[in-house]
Amino acid sequence: MPTPSTASRPAVVTPPASRRSPLRRRTGTTGRSPWRSLRHSGMRWWSLANLVSNAGTWMQLTAQNLLVLQLTGSAALTGLCVAAQAAPGLLLGPLGGAVVDAWPRKVTAAVSQLLLALVAVATAALIALGMLNIPVLLVLAAVSGLIATVDAPACALLGNDLVPREDVPSAIALGSLVTNAGRLGGVALAGVATAALGAAAAYAVNGASFLFVAAVIPFLRLLPGAEGEPASGTARRPAERPRVREGLAFFLGRPQLAALAAVAALSAVLGRNYALTLAALVTGPLHGGPEAYGAISTVLAVGGIAGAVIAGRMQRPGIRLIAALAAAGGLLQALAALSPSLLPLAVLVVPMAVVETVSDTATTTMLQTDPPAELRGRVLGTWRSMSTVWNLAGPPLLGLLLQAAGPRAALLSGGLVIAGLIGVAALARRGAARGGRVRAPEPASAMAAAPVPAPAMVPAA
Questions:
Q1: Are residues 364 and 266 in the same domain?
Q2: Which residue has the higher pLDDT, 317 or 241?
Q3: Which of 380, 386, 394, 452 has the smallest count of CB within 10 Å of its CB?
Q4: Domain range enclosing 286
C-alpha cells in the first residue's frame, strides 16, 4: 500500500516506555480479538463519542419522521425529507472527500460536528417557536446532508488514525456495534422525549450530542506517524490542494475497487434489502403478521451483532473474501426463499445477517486502507456518491421484481443470480491468471538478447 514519505510527517515525541501504560505500549496487534482496537485510549473515547452521537442522530431522525407525518400526514413527504438529506451525498461526495484530504482530519471533523450541532439547535428553536414548515425543514435536511459529505469521511478516517492498520477491522466492527446500540437507544429515547417534551427536545439533544463529539476530538491522540495529516498541522498549500477527479480516477483505475463496486451494486439491487424482501416473504407466502415479522427482524439484529463480533477478528480483508461473502449471502437468500415456515426462515436469517455484517466491515476496511493516505477522503467520497445511486435505485427495482414474480421467486432468482455471476467472474479471472502464467516465458527476443539462465527469466507468480 503506498504511503506518504516519512520525511513529510512531523516528528512525534512519545514518553518513555516506562511512563506509558501497558495498553499504550502495545501499538501493534496481539492476536485477533474483536475488541483489540479498544486497547487504544483514543479509540475508547471515540467509541463513546460515537455512541452518544448515534443515539442523538436516531432520536432526531425518528422525531423528524413523526414531525413530518404530524404536519402533513403524508408518507411521501417523509420520504422526500430523507431524499433531500441524501441528495448532497449523491452529487457532491467526491468534493466532500477532497475537502477531507485537503485539511487536517481533527480540524475538519470538529468543524463539521459543530456545524451539524448548529443546524440541529436551529431546527429545535424553529420548532419551539412554531416557525418550522415543510419547505424550511427540507432546506435544513439538505444542509445537514451537505455537511455530512465532509463529516462522514472525516470521522471515518479519523478513527483509522487512532489504531494501527491491523486493528482497523476491529475498529470498524466496533463502530457497527456502536451504531446498532445507538440506534436502539435513540429510537427508544425519541419516543419518550417526543411524547413528553415535543420534537424540539429530540433535535436539541442531537445538537448536544454533536457538541460532545466536537469537544472530544481535540483530546484524541493520533498514533505516531498517523497518516492523513498535513505536515504543518494546517491546510495544504494551494499547489498541493487535492483535485476532485483524482479520487474517481484512482477508484476506476484500481481493479479491486471497481470489482468491489460491482459486487456491492449487484447485492444492493438483487438482495440485501431484507427489510423489504423478508417483510414480503413473512406476510405473504408464510402468512405471518406484524408480530412474526418483528420476531424475524429481532433475529436479524441478533445475527448482525454476532457478525460484528466475528468481523472484528479480521485483519486485512480483500476483494476475494468480500465476493465470497456476497455469493454466500446470495445462496442463503435463495434457501430462505424456499422456507416452508417461519422457523426454518429464522434459522437461515442468522447466517444471512452474519454474512452481511462481515461483508460490510470488510468493504469499509478495504475502502479506508487500500488507497494511499492522501487519496482516502476522495475515494470515500466517490464511494458515497456511487453507493447512494444503488441504495436509492435498489429498493424500487427489487420492489418491482417482488410485485412481478412474487416474494419466493424474487428472492430465489436474485440470490442465484448474485452467486452465479460472482462464480462466473471468479472462474474467468482464474482462467485469465492461468493463461498469463502459461504465456509468461514466451518472449524469445528477450531470451536471445540477454544470455541469462532460463529459470531467472520466469516472473514470480
A1: yes
A2: 317
A3: 452
A4: 248-435
